[in-house]
């Protein structure tokens, strides 16, 4: 793991709050999630940054050194980001629309809708695994629109500058090697999967792994997770028969992998469209939402495992208005 600016912000937030519990609340994280992230940062830097006890989180001598450096660096970075955001806003015209996206089935529908509704625009796209940096970029004016996503209990934090329009909530499915015995079943349970080796997202990239862990905790067990991977690398680990994982219900299976519903539908994912309130997409928001929603419905119908699930659970399909 490489040191990132957000890690410096985490360290400073803990120091300012005086405890991990208060810092976690201010950062919109859980205390265990923040504690685990701090441990990874300390391992990376090579020493304990805080002594944690009844008095709260108190910087160590090593931690004071880290905090001194972080507090010297962050104002310059914040100033640069503010200056570049202003420059980007000045340079941006209705002829340019910058979109961002997490891994989602509706990105192409969003691009088509934006191109058709703003035909003179140049549309650019930047994809990222985590929604949080994309939401930050929307708020700062570095993007005009985005496809985001979140999980129950970990909903995206509202921003005054950004419109968040939930599009649909869908179940999360199991991702298996196609030769796996469980792939012969119509649906699989977490209790069956928990015995397997797992490929999981990196814990710092997104809160997805934290959400999965909270669901596993209900069964008082956590799976073995020897593989940390995302995107294509995760799929290849599953395809090779080395691991199992989870995926969006709208994931289109590729040769070598199988997608199966989870019994009881214990895990959910929400697709969210977002755009700047003062941006070029604001006037077209309702129409963009309608067109992307139609595209999502078409994707659902074209995804065999999800189409069968929707037939069996008609009242559980949550396409939002």
UniProtKB/TrEMBL annotation:
Q: Domain HTH lysR-type, which positions? A: 1-60
GO cellular component, alphabetical, reads: protein-DNA complex
Query: InterPro entries attached here?
Result: LysR_HTH_N (IPR000847), LysR_subst-bd (IPR005119), WH-like_DNA-bd_sf (IPR036388), WH_DNA-bd_sf (IPR036390)
Q: Which GO terms describe its molecular function?
A: DNA binding; DNA-binding transcription factor activity
Q: Which keywords describe this protein according to UniProt? A: DNA-binding, Transcription, Transcription regulation
- Keyword Glycosyltransferase in the entry? The reply is no
Q: Give one Pfam family.
A: LysR_substrate
The record's section on PANTHER family has: SMALL NEUTRAL PROTEASE REGULATORY PROTEIN, TRANSCRIPTIONAL DUAL REGULATOR HCAR-RELATED
Q: Which family does the entry's similarity section mention?
A: Belongs to the LysR transcriptional regulatory family.
In its UniProt entry, what is this protein called? LysR family transcriptional regulator
> What organism is the protein native to?
Streptomyces lunaelactis
Q: Read off the lineage from the record.
A: Bacteria, Bacillati, Actinomycetota, Actinomycetes, Kitasatosporales
């Amino acid at each position: 793991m490489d040191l990132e600016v957000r890690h410096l912000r985490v360290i400073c937030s803990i120091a300012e709050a005086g405890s991990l519990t208060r810092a976690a609340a201010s950062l919109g994280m859980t205390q265990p999630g923040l504690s685990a992230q701090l441990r990874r940062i300390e391992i990376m830097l090579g020493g304990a940054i805080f002594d944690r006890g009844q008095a709260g989180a108190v910087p160590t001598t090593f931690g004071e050194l880290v905090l001194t450096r972080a507090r010297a660096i962050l104002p310059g970075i914040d100033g640069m980001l503010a200056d570049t955001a202003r420059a980007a806003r000045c340079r941006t015209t209705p002829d340019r629309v910058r979109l961002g996206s997490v891994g989602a089935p509706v990105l192409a529908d969003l691009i088509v809708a934006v191109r058709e509704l703003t035909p003179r625009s140049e549309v650019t796209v930047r994809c990222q695994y985590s929604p949080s940096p994309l939401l930050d970029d929307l708020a700062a004016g570095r993007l005009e629109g985005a496809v985001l996503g979140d999980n129950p209990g970990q909903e995206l934090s509202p921003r005054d500058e950004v419109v968040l329009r939930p599009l649909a909530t869908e179940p999360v499915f199991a991702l298996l090697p196609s030769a796996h015995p469980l792939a012969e079943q119509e649906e699989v349970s977490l209790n069956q999967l928990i015995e397997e080796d797992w490929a999981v997202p990196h814990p710092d990239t997104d809160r997805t792994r934290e959400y999965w862990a909270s669901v596993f905790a209900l069964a008082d067990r956590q799976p073995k997770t020897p593989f940390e991977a995302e995107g294509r690398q995760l799929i290849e680990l599953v395809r090779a028969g080395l691991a199992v994982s989870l995926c969006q219900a709208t994931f289109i299976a590729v040769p070598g992998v199988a997608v199966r519903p989870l019994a009881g539908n214990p895990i959910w994912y929400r697709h969210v469209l977002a755009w700047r309130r003062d941006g070029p997409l604001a006037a077209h928001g309702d129409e963009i939402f309608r067109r992307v929603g139609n595209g999502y419905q078409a994707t659902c119908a074209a995804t065999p495992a999800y189409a069968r699930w929707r037939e069996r659970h008609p009242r559980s399909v949550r396409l939002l208005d």
